[in-house]
Write a structure and sequence with these properties.
By secondary structure, this protein is of the alpha/beta class. The protein is built from 15 helices and 12 strands. The structure holds pyridoxal-5'-phosphate (PLP).
């Protein structure tokens, strides 16, 4: 029997969600069902698995016990109806687009969404006649005026990358629903520990589990969690037929990573708060964006919809790109690499790296200035991180 998690705290739920010791040997860790297909007991059983009269497994692209264990666990953390694990975060994004959009249909998205989430819409889905508007969703008037009668999705990312701008999830849910559209939230930056969009009115939430959920910078993956059975069935059918499923070994690894999610998130965001406060008063820094600072223009919204402020910081070193490069090249602990959400600190320069293919005027309009440095704070000792930044800034 699995533990009833109703009313249990987040640390208990992240530890035990999806837990169901195997009935044959009692293995506490879920076995890796490394199989592509499943044998039926007899012809009738096979037929019943296909009609759904029996809940048996058929084929791993359709379902697999190890994958399902991960899906159940993450669904528990997001308070959803059910989850669907995908090969990467982008497989989750494109599966949602494919499920709800088509020729003559429209979506509204956050202008500073993850680069590929915007590019795949602008370059690929547009070829099939899908229409889109990417706007600053922090401004609800802009969201309202972008909605059309053929809008099927309002797709937001909050905090957005790398501007750390927030979007009001509950308000966007109302706007989407007034227009007969669904609200989708990319919750990667917060993880299910710090923000639960389905509880704020969203219909679908997704994560790149490559980031916080796996947390060890060694696996890519994605997951979609829906509020209702209808949305689950629609998206699941698309993923079964298009094939962006996760595999059993990958599922086992990400479940293993997820067990320490709340510990890692707590430590990393405590570090981030101290680093942001240090940077804010440093003479070599122009500005710092972190939702946990009172200077963040949406600090009140952060308090309202987030359970913590996360561990992503953006800042600009005096001297723009040149100053930023001195820091990038001289910090010793944060590694110069894209990605985020792992145990280790990573630092990067969006204008020349993750966001290099956005035209300059659009990038600047979205608030990604030339000298912006993005720091994904890890779980190291904060004293060591502070001393490291201090010595790098002294060289500017
Ligand atoms: C990384 C990321 C994605 C894409 O995920 P992959 O696992 O790299 O495919 C989508 N959204 C956000 C916010 C991300 O950080």
């Amino acid at each position: 029997m699995s533990l009833d998690l109703k009313g249990k705290g987040i640390n208990t739920r992240v530890t035990h969600a999806g837990e169901n010791p195997d009935s044959v040997h009692g293995s506490v860790s879920v076995p890796i069902y490394q199989t592509s297909t499943f044998k039926f007991r007899d012809a009738d059983h096979g037929a019943q698995c296909f009609t759904g009269e029996e809940q048996g497994y058929i084929y791993t692209r359709v379902g697999n016990p190890t994958i399902n264990t991960f899906e159940e666990a993450v669904t528990e953390l997001e308070h959803g109806f059910a989850g669907i694990a995908t090969s990467t975060g982008m497989a989750a994004v494109t599966s949602i687009y494919m499920t709800y959009l088509g020729a003559g249909l429209h979506m509204v998205g956050t202008d500073a969404v993850y680069g590929s989430s915007r590019m795949v819409m602008e370059n690929e889905f547009s070829r099939f006649g899908v229409e889109h508007s990417f706007v600053d969703t922090a401004d609800l008037d802009k969201v309202r005026s972008a909605m059309r009668s053929n809008t099927k999705l309002l797709y937001i990312e909050t905090p957005a990358n790398p501007t750390i701008k927030l979007t009001d999830i509950a308000a966007c849910a109302d706007i989407a629903h007034e227009h007969g559209a669904l609200l989708v939230v990319d919750n990667t930056f917060m993880s299910p520990i710090l923000q639960n969009p389905l509880e704020l009115g969203a219909d679908i939430v997704l994560h790149s589990i490559t980031k916080y959920i796996n947390g060890h910078t060694d696996v890519v993956g994605g997951v979609i969690i829906t509020k209702t059975e209808d949305e689950f069935t629609r998206i699941k059918n698309v993923i079964i037929s298009t094939g962006g499923t996760m595999d059993p070994h990958q599922s086992w690894l990400v479940l293993r990573g997820m067990r320490t999610l709340s510990l890692r998130v707590d430590r990393a965001q405590a570090n981030a708060q101290k680093l942001a406060e240090f940077l804010e008063t440093h003479p070599k820094i122009d500005w710092v964006r972190y939702p946990g600072l009172k200077s963040h223009p949406q600090h009140d919204l952060a308090k309202r919809q987030m359970k913590g402020y996360g561990s992503m910081i953006s800042f600009e070193v005096k001297g723009g790109v040149a100053g930023g490069k001195v820091v990038l090249n001289h910090v010793k602990i944060p590694q110069l690499a894209v990605s985020l959400g792992g145990y280790e600190s990573l630092i990067q320069h969006p204008a020349s790296m993750t966001h290099h293919n956005i035209p300059d005027d659009e990038r600047l309009a979205a608030g990604i200035s030339d000298g912006l440095v993005r720091l994904a704070v890890g779980t190291e000792d904060v004293e060591d991180l502070l001393a490291d930044l201090e010595q790098a800034l002294a060289l500017v």
